[in-house]
TrEMBL record, chain A:
This is Cytochrome c oxidase subunit 1. It comes from Blastopirellula marina DSM 3645. It is a multi-pass membrane protein. Keywords: Cell membrane, Copper, Electron transport, Heme, Iron, Membrane, Metal-binding, Respiratory chain, Translocase, Transmembrane, Transmembrane helix, Transport. PROSITE patterns: COX1, COX1_CUB. Belongs to the heme-copper respiratory oxidase family. Residues 16-535 form the Cytochrome oxidase subunit I profile domain. Pathway: Energy metabolism; oxidative phosphorylation. InterPro entries: Cyt_c_oxase-like_su1_dom (IPR023616), Cyt_c_oxase-like_su1_sf (IPR036927), Cyt_C_Oxase_1 (IPR000883), Cyt_c_Oxase_su1_BS (IPR023615), Cyt_c_oxidase_su1_bac (IPR014241). It comes from the Bacteria. The chain crosses the membrane at residues 33-59, 79-102, 114-132, 167-193, 205-231, 251-276, 288-312, 324-346, 358-380, 392-418, 430-452, 472-497. GO terms for molecular function: cytochrome-c oxidase activity; heme binding; metal ion binding. Signal peptide: none annotated. Its EC number is 7.1.1.9.
């Protein structure tokens, strides 16, 4: 088999051989990098869609983008960012890091791993093919326009003519199956392939959180897959699951979708929590505060997140008792989430904070996620939700959680592990520019949305009338969006420049404590020359401080 | 060598941080000029007021948490950042693995807060929703369509569209209106922020919602659940009038449509073309249900679900090409000649 070796040997081989190596690879590190490259590609696509949305909302009654195109844009933006940016990026990080962190040579099922990636990419391709061959009311080249949660009966043939919705169904269905294989693989790897001596309560927190994450994926994705197949049956085989005209239920779709959709929020957040739990200690030069409560809080979040889905449905007119239950459960999830934020903050206390780029993103994450969490408490307050639900307040809330939360952490992860994966450091100067432009742009973009929302602006409107007082806030948002765009441009420049001529990283540039830093950068395909033996949660701390090892305290 | 590089990095870092902060301040300064009380915080009904109070309560609690946690975060960053220019020191700070009392404390405190909040929420949900309409209260059946609103007053036997008229309610002796919410096609959501939170209109399900206005006036709202192409232009106007005026309005609406011989040409076009298939004009052969009831079209201030002011020019433009104002609208372009449009508008303008 032509698995090209990373490093100098592959640089000398011809391009075709290299590409062939990447396409046929079953190396978890290469698959991880492929996932991240895919994610970055779709990040650009989804980002451009967001910029177009913001341009259209610059002034009231704008005619720059028509309603049909606009509705396709926000559908594609949401679907892309969730299924084809955040999901592959977290899969990429998990793929790359988990085997290195637990000291093994690859994942449990390397070929299944490759299948998962190619399914995810295939799903993205299916979705975007709609722009070329999707047919709908407006003719050929129509992307789906039903919103990322595709509420029935808007997706029924009567209201979504042509095939554009099928691209949404099939694209996310295929990538969802890929995600499932990824989760199965990850669980098997973490449970059975840890380095000798590493107990389950000694894995790095990133690994622990990915384990819970994979468990959530296995519970949450099948209902979505089932719902999508039911929808296909409705559309093509004359079934009536969601066909309200024939006794079907529109609310059934909402239950099935959000039973996936809410755990999905935590599926996207837990890996971010994991990344933060690695970065904050290393750049504070301190052990994580309360490892056990952190791990327990993660498990609690995983469990409770399966029982909060109907807080997306407070306006649907469910039973009062259901609303009360889902409200209380949503409040309750704030407790373990709070524990995490407190533990990270306490880790800073008494530390020696090194404000390098990964740490900037981690600290940015803490602030932004705190805001997103607190607006979440407002949304769990049912009567308040009746007002702000489906308004721009909600749009602001979930962007603070998913962008200020997940994506900030994933960006921090890029800066933190780039040296490991490439052997080169990313530029700190460009990194700081990237962070600050993103931070300022982000708050300028999503902060004002809270206000537009409480002024009555609903989400998913392609335009709005003058005289509502919304113009100013929308303009701030648009300015913020473009500032963020510049930030990301700098990020991509940084990636290319540093890859070409970045400082050499060495094996352990951050003086960190987990096993991935014990091998070379980039690691050889077999990861470790010798599988290390582990006695504590910070094996490299033990190595560096033989006089004061961790295992004495655990 | 190494400490020199670190020092320069830090200088660059603080230098860079200064101007985004300044930029943020400049960006936020015009806030004073555009400040306008958000609709949600300027309610005109007991329910909306109760939601506002609840919002203030949660806002106060979360702001307190934000200040405490965010403050600690900011202080720790400031206090414990590696001091600029300090010589590189390979020793590590004391390692603190955790503290059981502290961790128990910050688990219990939020648990108590969310327990209290849950109880408050349950109480207000029950207070605001579970009371059924009593005998003699005004009921309106509101049906969502792509992309307009049908309002039927079953007790009075007439139907109107897009502009809901209700009598004002005395705060001391409340007379709320009960909406029976249904949908003819996809899911919509009825949202008039000054009067109440939103409730969805779900096909094959009937929802209920209480609507009340303590002062006369026009309250604007909109569809809040994405419902297809023209979701953005599915506006609601609730007009609250005094009970006496309301009675007069009801009496006017109950009359059948006016028939004037002078506009017979326009009337003929209406009945011969497809217009009559979709629109009802009570007392006439037109009994279509797909579009808004036009019996008293001219008693409404807007057309096309709040998108255009109801006047001669806009009516003519709307008939000529509905896609101009509302692309994708279900109202077809009937390709009428300018003369036909004029005759039709003449007729419609008599429907007072």
């Amino acid at each position: 088999m032509a698995i090209a070796e990373t490093g100098q040997s592959s640089a000398a081989s011809p391009l075709v051989t290299q590409l062939h190596g990447w396409v046929t690879t079953v190396d978890h590190k290469r698959i991880g990098i492929l996932y991240i490259l895919m994610s970055l590609f779709f990040l650009v696509v989804g980002g451009v869609e967001a910029l177009l949305i913001r341009l259209q909302l610059w002034v009231p009654n704008n005619t720059l983008i028509g309603p049909d195109t606009f509705n396709q844009l926000f559908t594609m933006h949401g679907t892309t960012m969730i299924f084809f940016v955040v999901m592959p990026m977290l899969s990429g990080f998990a793929n790359y890091l988990v085997p290195l962190m637990i000291g093994c040579r690859d994942v449990a099922f390397p070929r299944l791993n490759a299948l998962g990636f190619w399914l995810a990419l295939f799903g993205g391709c299916i979705l975007y093919t709609s722009y070329f061959t999707g047919d709908a009311l407006y003719g050929l080249g129509s992307a789906p326009d039903v919103g990322w949660f595709a509420y029935a009966p808007l997706t029924s043939p009567a209201y979504a003519r042509g095939g554009s919705v099928d691209y949404w169904i099939l694209g996310t269905l295929v990538s969802g199956v890929g995600t499932l294989t990824f989760a199965v693989n990850l669980i098997a790897t973490i449970l059975t392939m840890r380095a000798p001596g590493m107990k389950l309560n000694q894995v790095p927190l990133f690994v622990w959180m990915m384990l819970v994450d994979a468990g959530l994926i296995i519970v949450a994705f099948p209902p979505l897959t089932a719902a999508q197949i039911m929808l296909l049956l409705d559309r093509y085989a004359g079934a009536h699951f969601f066909d309200t005209q024939a006794g079907g239920s529109a609310i059934l779709w909402q239950h099935l979708f959000w039973f996936f959709g809410h755990p999905e929020v935590y599926i996207m957040a837990l890996p971010a929590f994991g990344i933060i739990s690695e970065i904050v200690p290393v750049f504070s030069r301190k052990v994580i505060f309360g490892y056990a409560s952190m791990a327990a809080a993660t498990a609690a979040i995983g469990f409770i997140s399966l029982g909060v889905w109907a807080h997306h449905m407070f306006t649907v007119g469910l039973d009062d008792r259901l609303d009360a239950f889902f409200s209380a459960a949503s409040f309750l999830i704030a407790v373990p989430t709070g524990i995490k934020i407190f533990n990270w903050t306490a880790t800073l206390y008494g530390g020696r904070l090194q404000l390098r780029t990964p740490m900037l993103f981690a600290l940015g994450f803490l602030g932004m996620f705190l805001i997103g969490g607190l607006t979440g408490i407002m949304l769990a307050t049912v009567p308040v939700d009746w007002q702000v639900s489906d308004s721009y307040f909600l749009v602001a809330h979930f962007h603070y959680v998913l962008f200020g939360g997940s994506l900030f952490a994933l960006m921090g992860g890029c800066y933190y592990w780039f040296p490991k994966a490439t052997g080169k450091m990313l530029s700190e100067t460009l990194g700081a520019w990237h962070f600050w432009l993103l931070f300022v742009g982000f708050n300028l973009l999503f902060g004002p949305m809270h206000i537009a929302g409480i002024m009555g602006m609903p989400r998913r409107v392609y335009t709005y009338e003058a005289g509502q007082g919304w113009d100013f806030w929308n303009q701030l948002s648009t300015i913020g969006a473009f500032i963020m765009g510049i930030g990301f441009l700098i990020f991509f420049i940084n990636l290319v420049l540093s890859l070409r001529s970045g400082q050499k990283a060495g094996d352990d540039p951050w003086d960190a404590w987990t096993l991935e830093w014990a091998t070379s950068s980039p690691p050889a395909s077999y990861n470790f020359e010798q599988i290390p033996t582990v006695r504590s949660r910070r094996p490299l701390w033990d190595l560096k401080h033989p006089e004061d090892p961790d295992w004495k305290y655990e | 060598m190494r400490s020199l590089r670190k020092g320069r990095f830090r200088q660059a870092y603080w230098g860079m941080m200064r101007w985004p902060l300044a930029l943020a301040l400049v960006a936020l300064s015009p806030l004073v000029l555009v400040a306008q009380t958000p609709e949600m915080f300027d309610p005109a009904s007991p329910d909306a007021i109760e939601i506002r109070e609840l919002f203030y309560l949660v806002l106060a609690i979360t702001t307190l948490i934000f200040v405490l946690v965010g403050g600690a975060l900011a202080y720790f960053i400031y206090r414990f950042r590696d001091p600029p220019g300090a010589p590189r020191d390979d020793s590590e700070p004391p390692q603190i693995y955790g503290s059981q009392p502290i961790e128990i404390a910050w688990t219990l405190a939020p648990t108590l807060i969310v327990l209290v909040l849950s109880l408050v929420v349950i109480r207000s949900v029950i207070a605001m929703r579970s009371e059924p309409p009593t005998e003699g209260t005004l009921r309106v059946r509101a049906v969502g369509h792509q992309w307009w609103w049908e309002f039927e007053y079953p007790e009075f036997g007439f139907t109107t569209a897009n502009e809901l008229v209700i009598p004002t309610s005395d705060a001391d002796a409340p007379t709320p209106v009960y909406l029976q919410l249904e949908s003819a096609d996809v899911i919509h959501s009825f949202w008039v922020p000054k009067l109440a939170g939103k409730t969805d209109l779900v096909p094959a399900k009937t929802n209920r919602m209480r609507l009340e206005a303590n002062a006369a006036g026009i309250y604007e709202g909109r569809c809040a659940e994405y419902c297809g192409t023209q979701h953005a232009k599915m506006l609601i106007r609730v007009t609250a009038v005094s009970p006496a005026e309301f009675e007069k309005w009801v009496a006017d609406q109950q009359r059948s449509a006016a028939v004037a011989a002078s506009v017979d040409a326009g009337r003929q076009i209406f009945m011969d073309q497809a217009c009559a298939n979709c629109h009802t004009i009570r007392g006439e052969p037109a009994i279509g249900k797909f579009g808004p009831d036009l019996t008293h079209l001219m008693s409404r201030h807007t057309i096309a679900s709040g998108v255009l002011e109801n006047n001669r020019t806009n009516l003519a433009d709307w008939l000529t090409d509905p896609d101009q104002a509302k692309p994708g609208s279900r109202m077809p372009n009937m390709r009428l000649s300018p003369t036909e449009v004029k005759q039709l508008v003449d007729y419609l303008m008599t429907l007072e």
